[in-house]
Design a protein that fits this description.
Blueprint: E1 2-5, H1 13-27, H2 46-58, E2 63-69, E3 76-81, E4 90-94, E5 105-107, E6 109-112, E7 118-124, H3 128-131, E8 132-142, E9 147-148, E10 151-153, E11 163-171, E12 176-181, E13 187-190, E14 200-207, E15 213-220, E16 226-229, E17 232-239, E18 248-256, E19 262-266, E20 272-278, E21 287-289, E22 292-294, E23 297-300, E24 304-308, E25 315-324, E26 346-354, E27 359-364, E28 370-373, E29 384-391, E30 394-403, E31 407-413, E32 415-422, E33 434-440, E34 445-450, E35 456-461, E36 474-480, E37 485-495, E38 513-518, E39 525-527, E40 537-538, E41 541-546, E42 558-567, E43 572-578, E44 584-590, E45 598-601, E46 604-605, E47 608-611, E48 615-622, E49 629-638, E50 649-650, E51 664-672, E52 677-682, E53 688-690, E54 701-707, E55 712-718, E56 722-727, E57 731-737, E58 748-753, E59 759-763, E60 771-774, E61 787-792, E62 798-808, E63 811-814, E64 818-823, E65 829-834, E66 842-845, E67 849-854, E68 857-860, E69 864-873, H4 874-905, H5 960-971, E70 979-983, E71 989-993, H6 1069-1076
Parallel strand pairs: 8-11, 25-26, 34-36, 49-51, 59-61
Antiparallel strand pairs: 1-2, 2-7, 3-6, 3-8, 4-5, 4-7, 8-9, 10-18, 11-17, 12-16, 12-18, 13-15, 14-15, 14-17, 19-24, 20-23, 20-25, 21-22, 21-24, 26-32, 27-31, 27-33, 28-30, 29-30, 29-32, 31-34, 35-42, 36-41, 37-40, 37-42, 38-39, 38-41, 43-48, 44-47, 44-49, 45-46, 45-48, 50-58, 51-57, 52-56, ...
Organism: Esox lucius (Northern pike)
Domain CDCP1 third and sixth CUB: 451-555, 756-869
Domain CDCP1 second and fifth CUB: 149-254, 332-438, 659-739
């Protein structure tokens, strides 16, 4: 074999053509053959030359190859193009012959002559080696004991650079077994979809005696080295280009088929019969039970051992069962469970059904439906169903069906059979039929059909097709057409019979006719086979076929028709593009509320469509309303560092495509923050509210916040107490509304430095409002090892009652949970609790504070907290605190003073005490001042040896000095306010006046004396005739009663008040004014 590559004549093509013409003139001088190009005509002499010139000219436009080969003797070699290209694009030419032979043969496929040198010229726009395939066929004839030739020979060097298929056709006589032996490396059986990776693939096709074809595929390097085949066989070997093959692929031998005998235990199922039949051509094959043998048919009703004298190919097995239907129900359903009974035999499962007289039996296919096919075809899964009816005129085949299509119900009159054919070695996958008693019908059968949505074509056949429809019989098809669809009936193939002429006594005309009835209509539309059938009609309908009494001199009635369905409305078209720089992602989903709604992307029906940034899509919506579609969109926002981030921004919904007239139901912003930073979210106006029990977000607009890992923070809406939310991670914000197109800007966004907590809420509680603070994603628990804080800002002169209404603590595996409360101005913790400590229900916080929660790594349970903040006025609580403090001090005095007095009785010592007494509107007096005269207090006349308890204080009321003091006190100038001594920094005294109207809930009247505590609210019994002064208040203490030995007055000076504690300091008047106001 010689190979020559074609030259490229692209720059010399005209000269090359002239040279070819000159050569042509020399060869054909005297023959009158085309001396000049302009004189050439398409004569039998000139045509080969012109074709050769065109082929050679194409070589400079495409790839070409010229080679010479010589096939072996008795070998048929076919060279053909493996691509679907025209002759001008890809061809092979036979340019061989003698010196004077100028015939050129060019085609897409050539068959080479064996044992002769052939020069081939390949020309193709594609690479030649991949554009052409070579088939090399050899025939092997076998007798009963040998084959000729005995080897599957090959020609290794022939077309080695091409893809080759080596085929050997082996023929053997009947009752002869063909044996094939392969090389030592053996073969490995593959599945139908498997491919051999090394480029060598064997295929063995076996043709059985009954015409069936079996195929097996093998690859090299396996355990199969020997095959016995009892039939005609074709062996092929596909070799990829460049692969080498040996001169001998296999060896073939033949030997007579031995009489096979196989004993099989046949066990029928309950209420069933196994019928075994022998192929009529295999007369020597028998079925033996014991010593009794049968050659044609054997029935088995119970477990029986059967000896088969031939292979399973010559036997057919029928497994039959009877189902009887009464007037109410049938005795069972048509279902055949998988079993290993005669698995390698060709099997037919049959069910004989019988209904009540005049009634039908009904077959329902509830799962996948059935598809009617012509009897000449087989089903893809090799499971073929046949429904037959038995009438007085004989048996009629209603139809042959496969699983999965539009026929949902078949009603058969009185008596019939359902059969399922399964080939040998095929796993049984039956379809379950529901068998019930059907209605009364006066026709062979009724087929109910559910036509599919969209565009479809479904074919149907009359009974016995392609044979004659039974005489004087009726058959009906009930079609359910989807809404908003049009249907058209087309007759593909039919035969119109010759009807017998009836006598004058017959009233009905003897003719073939059709009747159409629409759902809900009474009037039937009658037509013949030649009349136009319904076109572009709507609504469900039925079609009834009536046959006549046929004259048997001509073919009878047969009908093959098609029902085509298409949508009746026009789609709404929209071209949507998402620019790359905007980063928008659109998602459109069919909600499935309306089955008529059909959504397509680039003419492909989809249930969900996603349009990514930088892409375009042509959308169409057919019979879809706004409630049928759900439109959502999203956008990613982020920056690389805080320096590059804008100070703040506003989240707004971009404009949607104008043609997309679907309300935008949600929009999601994905905020990607830089490392070591925080995203701050706050509303443009007002505040946010977390959706919680009793405070659900039931308005038109709501937000869902989630961290970058998908952990939910919660749902939020407007009109709440949350001023700002800070998150230390990427955040997704999903806004949901009925129509987001109409909403204003949603949130302001800024980026700041990293915070220590996972989330921080800044809240400002409201007076008289249920201020709830809940952990993120309430009622779900906090994320493990996360922290959350609330900065609670209180108004001036208001304090907070913090109530923990719901606390759920987990079992911690690592670390602890913490609940901490501290004020903003103090690092001291007011509250600190762990998960194993007893919780505090209520806490009073006097000013703005932090509430911090930290989660552990839980082993069980979750950590979640729900608290409520209630604002209270500080003034009311301040007054109540004073009353409580005074009461506690008085109680302590009543207990301690008797003890002190008792101990002082036993002591006699002189104590000189100095007392500083502040006199209002007078000068300061120090102890020892000359104004005070010598009195009884300077001697020991006031010391008693014993004291009568009843007279401890009573005698003092009769002392003249004390009476004068009391009288002077009431006769002095009236005082309308309580005056407290507060020294100035420079040491000079100052009078600080606190008006009575600053005390909450106490009316002020000028020039009227008011005690510190009203007598009705004090612990002292009321004394209406005794004047009550400040010293009578339980919060008042006279210093003169401190340093005396017997608790008597030391002198008769003015009363000096003593402040009990520093906690009752009067607040800033400005604060009180703000609180009251």
């Amino acid at each position: 074999m010689s190979i020559r590559l074609c030259l490229n004549f692209s720059s010399h093509a005209p000269g090359y053509i002239s040279g070819m013409l000159a050569l042509y003139r020399i060869r054909h001088v005297g023959a009158g053959a085309c001396p000049r190009l302009q004189d050439m005509q398409l004569t039998p002499t000139c045509a080969p030359a012109l074709l050769g010139i065109v082929i050679l000219l194409l070589c400079h436009l495409s790839e070409c190859l010229q080679m010479t080969v010589r096939p072996d003797k008795d070998v048929t070699v076919t060279v053909s193009s493996s691509l679907l290209l025209s002759l001008e694009q890809c061809s092979v030419c036979n340019v061989s012959g003698g010196e004077n032979d100028t015939q050129k043969m060019c085609d897409t496929s050539l068959e080479l002559v064996p044992d002769e040198d052939v020069t081939l010229l390949f020309n193709c726009t594609e690479p030649v080696q991949s554009a052409f395939a070579i088939q090399i066929y050899r025939k092997i004839e076998c007798s009963k004991d040998s084959c000729s030739p005995a080897t599957g020979a090959a020609q290794p060097s022939l077309f080695q650079e091409f893809n080759r298929t080596l085929v050997w056709g082996l023929s053997v006589p009947d009752k002869t077994v063909l044996s094939l032996d392969f090389p030592a490396e053996g073969l490995k059986e593959m599945t139908e979809s498997g491919l051999c990776q090394d480029g060598y693939q064997y295929t063995v096709n076996m043709i059985s005696t009954n015409g069936g074809v079996g195929s097996k595929t093998y690859c090299r390097n396996g355990s199969v080295t020997h095959l016995d085949i009892p039939s005609q066989t074709t062996v092929s070997l596909q070799v990829h280009n460049g692969r080498e093959v040996g001169s001998s692929i296999f060896t073939a031998t033949a030997k007579p088929m031995k009489k096979q005998s196989r004993m099989i235990l046949v066990t029928p199922e309950p209420n069933s019969i196994v019928i075994i039949r022998t192929d009529s051509k295999a007369k020597e094959c028998n079925m033996c039970v014991g010593s009794t043998c049968k050659s044609s048919q054997l029935e088995v009703t119970s477990a029986t051992s059967v000896d088969f004298t031939c292979s399973q190919d010559v036997y057919k097995v029928e497994i039959n069962r009877h189902i009887d239907c009464s007037k109410i129900s049938c005795s069972g359903n048509i279902v055949q469970m998988e079993s290993s009974l005669l698995l390698d035999f060709n099997r037919t499962f049959t069910w004989d059904l019988k209904g009540p007289p005049g009634r039908s039996f009904q077959l329902d296919f509830p799962l996948s439906g059935m598809r009617q096919i012509p009897p000449s075809k087989t089903c893809p899964d090799n499971h073929t169903y046949t429904i037959t009816t038995y009438q007085r005129t004989g048996a009629a085949t209603i139809g042959v069906f496969c699983q999965g299509d539009t026929v949902t119900t078949v009603q058969v009159l009185f008596k019939g059979r359902v059969s399922l054919e399964v080939p040998g070695n095929q796993k049984l996958e039956p379809l379950e039929f529901n068998v019930t008693v059907g209605p009364e019908i006066k026709m062979l059968a009724v087929l109910k059909v559910d036509l599919p949505r969209g565009v479809s074509d479904t074919d149907f056949l009359s009974a016995n097709f392609p044979k004659d429809f039974p005489d004087d019989s009726v058959m009906r098809w009930d079609f359910k057409v989807p809404g908003r669809h049009n249907y058209t009936v087309n007759f593909l193939n039919y035969t119109d019979p010759l009807c017998k002429k009836l006598g004058p006594s017959e009233q009905d005309p003897n003719e073939v006719k059709l009747e159409y009835r629409k759902e809900g209509e009474v009037v039937d539309i009658k037509s013949t086979l030649m009349d136009p059938q319904p076109r572009h009609s709507q609504g469900s309908f039925s079609m009834t076929l009536f046959n006549c009494m046929v004259n048997n001199t001509k073919p009878g009635l047969s009908l093959n028709f098609r029902v085509s369905v298409m949508r009746s409305s026009h789609p709404v078209v929209c071209a949507v593009s998402s620019p790359e720089d905007e980063g928008l992602i659109f998602n459109i989903e069919n909600s499935g509320f309306d089955p008529d709604c059909e959504m397509s992307e680039d003419s492909v029906v989809q249930e969900k469509i996603t349009i990514l940034p930088g892409t375009k899509a042509n959308l169409s919506f057919l019979d879809c309303s706004n409630k049928d579609l759900r439109l959502t969109a999203s956008k990613a926002i982020g920056c690389q560092s805080l320096d590059l981030c804008s100070a703040s921004g506003t989240l707004t919904v971009p404009e949607m495509p104008a043609c997309l007239r679907v309300p935008l139901q949600s929009f999601t912003w994905h905020l990607n923050i830089p490392t070591y930073s925080t995203v701050d979210l706050f509303p443009p106006k007002g505040s946010l509210r977390q959706s919680l029990p009793g405070q659900d977000c039931d308005g038109s607009l709501s937000f869902h916040l989630a961290e970058g890992d998908g952990s939910s923070i919660g749902y939020f809406c407007s009109d709440g107490i949350i001023r700002k939310v800070q998150v230390q991670s990427n955040v997704s914000i999903t806004a949901t509304a009925k129509d987001l197109h109409r909403e204003e800007p949603f949130l302001n966004v800024s980026f700041s430095e990293e915070i220590s907590e996972s989330i921080i809420y800044t809240v400002q509680p409201k007076m008289g409002y249920p201020n709830l603070l809940a952990t993120p994603s309430w009622p779900d628990g906090m994320t493990p090892l996360s922290t959350v804080s609330w900065i609670v800002i209180l108004p001036r002169n208001l304090q907070a009652e913090l109530l923990f209404t719901n606390i759920s603590q987990p079992k911690c595996g690592q670390r602890h949970t913490h609940i901490k409360v501290l004020t903003l101005d103090s690092p001291e913790e007011i509250l600190s609790l762990k998960e194993d400590e007893e919780a505090v229900d209520k806490l009073i916080v006097p000013e703005s504070f932090y509430l911090n929660l930290s989660n552990c790594m839980p082993e069980e349970g979750t950590f979640r907290v729900l608290s409520r903040v209630t604002l209270q006025k500080t003034s009311k609580l301040f007054l109540g605190g004073i009353v409580g403090a005074v009461g506690a001090v008085l109680l302590l005095m009543l207990i301690v003073l008797p003890v002190i007095c008792f101990m002082l009785r036993k002591k006699k010592r002189t104590m000189v005490s100095e007392a500083s007494i502040y006199m209002g509107k007078q000068s300061n007096l120090n102890p020892g001042h000359g104004v005070f005269a010598k009195s009884r207090s300077d001697n020991d006349s006031h010391v008693y040896t014993s004291i009568e308890d009843t007279m401890v204080y009573g005698h003092l009321l009769r002392e003249p000095g004390y009476l004068n003091v009391v009288q002077d006190h009431f006769e002095g100038a009236p005082v309308d306010s309580y005056r407290t001594f507060m020294a100035l920094p420079d040491g000079s005294p100052e009078i600080t006046e606190t008006p009575a109207d600053d005390v909450p809930d106490i009316d002020h009247e000028k020039d009227k004396y008011r005690p510190f505590l009203d007598t009705s609210s004090s612990f002292m019994p009321s004394r209406p005739r005794t004047p009550i002064d400040r010293q009578d208040s339980m919060g008042f203490m006279d210093r003169r009663m401190v340093d005396t030995e017997l608790c008597t007055f030391k002198s008769i000076g003015d009363i000096n008040n003593i402040r009990l504690s520093g906690s009752d300091q009067i607040s800033d008047p400005a604060h009180l004014t703000d609180a009251d106001g």
